[in-house]
Amino acid sequence: MTIRKTLLVAFLCAGLLPAILLASLAFVKAREAVQAEIERNISNQAAGVSADIDKMMFERLQNAATWSRLDIMQDIQIHDVDKRLSHFLADLRDGYRNVYLNLACVDAEGSIVSSSDAVQVGQLADKGVVWQRTTLSGVEVDIELPTAQEGGALLMHVPVASAFAVGRLGELRLQLDWTEIYDVLDQAASVGGRSLAVLDGDGRLIAASKDLRERGLILGKALADWRGQPGAQQVRLRSGMPISPSNVIAVTAISRGYANFSGLGWTTLIVQPVDAALQPVHRMAMIFLALIGLIVLLALSIATWVSHAIARPIVTLTGFARGYMRNKVLQAPPAAGSGEVGELTDAFVQMVRDIDQSQQNLVRASKLAVVGEMSSVIAHEVRTPLGILRSSAQILKRETGISDEGRELVGFIDSETERLNRLVTAMLDTARPRAPSYAAVDLHELIARSVAMLSGQADKKKVVVNTRFQAADPVIEADEEQMTQVLLNLLMNGLQILGHGGRIELTTRDDARYLFVEIADDGPGIDPAERSKVFEAFFFKREGGIGLGLAIVQQIIGSHGGRIEAAESNLGGALFRICLPRAQSGET
After folding, report:
1. Less Cβ crowding at N or C end of the chain, within 10 Å?
2. How far apart are the C-alpha atoms of 560 and 545, rounded to whole Å?
3. Could you tell me if residue 137 is inside a domain?
4. What is the CB-side half-sphere exposure of residue 124 using CA atoms within 13 A?
5. How far apart are CA 236 and CA 247, in angstroms?
6. pLDDT digit string (tens) for 503-513?
7. CA angle, 412 then 415 then 417, to 5°
């Protein structure tokens, strides 16, 4: 088998099989955990709703027991002739806004003697059937079955004892707004598509959330068998009919009362469809299936990639070496990567770079050696006749009888001998560079002086030379004469290449260790392919150049421990960026 096939099978076996096993185990455990958490959540909610209802009923029963003992209730005996009791009941109803629909006092004959609704006064009270009877704070309270319609009411009767004789004067009737219970159930049912119901001791559904009320189940016994065994809270998985076509989780919580109130024996029922409850688990199962599919694709992709990754660095490195051997040009090195192959790539690329650098140094040294040999010959054999030729040409210029054409020819001799003399000087400087003599130098002053020295040439070509000194501390250790030569060479290059109306900008900046100088112009710039060659000896593009100026500049900057590079300026032309250390490690 090939490496690719072997890796493919290995990755599938190592990645896919454990993934399937782990995904299956995770799904089972997640389903169990989610179902247990849902059941615990529903149980807590059922207990909470039951406690809220018990507290609510306790408060209403406590109100009934307390109000029935008030002295003002004795006005029933005089049929509330001054309407003081009716006003009191109206104030209570208004004070308990949305709690009581009506409050009324009925005498022993069943006639309404006072009411929060003045229209009822004098009417006979309806005699309802007592549904439940409870005692709170020594007061017996009768409760009638709540009405079935939406917005129904629940009626409480509490006797009013006579303060002056044995027996009772009548009773206090409190008509509760039963929708208050509905609101509690509706709010609890808003979570997860649940249904809530409250069942009395006979299994009658006395209150429910909106979905059950709309089914017409109120006051019916369709859910009587959902209460389970009497006693503690229960959680069961059962058929959802007639509430839901699917299976449901049914949780019941028995009323436990509140404070000294023992409760009414009601059961709070919460029904949660299993499909809705386990929907997160089903989504998780789909995610697991998608992940398994993704793992298959990743295994195939990784196996293919690894087989290529093992051979690709070697192939790339081979191509890199062949390209260098063929063109003698150092191409972009391949990515090193990591591991042993990466170390091999790093070492090989560094070796090729060292070879290339050695070759460049050898070529540069050969050129400088040629310059040295030529300069030694020229210094002895050429400068003397050049001096004689130039002085002779200058004497001939002063002759009065020479013709205009002759004077022009003599001028040619003078200018060309001067150019040859500059060539000899540049070759000597390149061949025999002296060691720098370090001293504290204010580079801002040096730049200003160099600009002033060339101001005449700049004015002739209308070239604007601007300086922007942004360095906080321009003082460095350097050879003042050599740094002046660097600045003059770079400025002269700019002045010679620019046309009329050109622009040169010198900018400085610094940090704790280095000072930076940038010389930019708006001339034609330097071809990116030639930027690495401009500092080589005898490389020039300008007509009349000899290609030694920038080589001398690089030599001086290097002897100062700095560096120089060519780039494109923001003005669109050439940019020379110099970096110089503030202090030298050697003797100053």
Report:
1. N
2. 26
3. yes
4. 4
5. 10
6. 999 999 999 89
7. 100
pLDDT single digits (tens) 536-570: 766 665 655 556 678 888 888 888 889 999 888 88
- 581: how many CB neighbours lie within 10 A of its CB? 16
Task: Give the amino acid at 67.
Answer: W
Give the dihedral sign, CA 469/473/477/480.
positive
| Range in 49-63, 251-265, 394-408 with the lowest mean pLDDT | 394-408
Q: Which residue among 137, 157, 174 closes a domain?
A: 174
Q: What is the pLDDT of residue 432?
A: 58
Instruction: Return all residues near 432 (Cβ < 8 A) that are at least 6 apart.
Output: 372, 375
- Choose the weakest-confidence range: 100-114, 236-250, 361-375: 361-375
Number of compact structural domains in the chain:
2
Residue tagged 């006072």 (tokens): 114
Kind of pairing, strands 503-510 and 464-469? Answer: parallel
CATH classification of the domain holding 73: 3.30.450.20
Q: How far apart are CA 208 and CA 226, in angstroms?
A: 14
The pTM for the full model equals 0.49
Q: Tell which wins on pLDDT, 488 or 354.
A: 488
Residue 587: pLDDT band with limits 50, 70, 90: very low
Q: Return the CATH number at 552.
A: 3.30.565.10
pLDDT digits (tens, 9 = 90+) for 325-335: 777 666 666 66
Distance CA 346, CA 351 (A): 9
Q: What is the distance between the terminal CA atoms of the chain, rounded to a whole angstrom?
A: 70
| Structural domain containing residue 100 | 57-174
322 falls within a domain: no
Rounded to an integer, what distance in angstroms lies between the CA atom of residue 177 and that of residue 93? 11
Average pLDDT, the chain: 82
β pairing state of 464-469 and 439-442: unpaired
Alpha carbons 567 and 551: distance in angstroms, whole number: 16
478: region left, alpha or beta (phi > 0 left; psi from -120 to 50 alpha): beta
Max mean pLDDT among 234-243, 399-408, 419-428 falls in 234-243
- Whether 276 is in a domain gets the answer no
Beta-bridged to residue 199, according to DSSP, are: 205, 267
Please provide the size of the chain in residues. Answer: 588
Q: Which of 183, 156, 160 is nearest to 102 (CA)?
A: 156
- 363: tokens are 């070529």
Residue 268 lies in a domain: no
DSSP letter (8 states) at residue 479: -
**Helix residue ranges per DSSP H, 461-516:** 480-497
Single residue among 174, 196, 214 that ends a domain in this structure = 174
